[in-house]
Amino acid sequence: AVFCSATFEYRNCFRYRHVLHYDARHRFAPGISTAKGKQVIAIVAPSIMGQYSEKMETIFEAIREIGFHDVLEVADGAMETTRREAEELKEKLEEGQPFMTTSCCPSYIELVNKHIKDMKPYVSTTGSPMYYTARMAKEKYPESLVVFIGPCVAKRSEARRDEAVDYVMTFEEINAIFDGLSIDMTPKNNESFHCSAPKEGKGFGMSGGVIGAVKAQNLIPDLKALQVSNLNKKNIGLLRAFSKGKAPVNFIEVMACEGGCVTGPSAHVDAATGSKLFKQAMEKFSVVKESEK
Question: What pLDDT is attached to residue 192?
Answer without folding.
Answer: 72
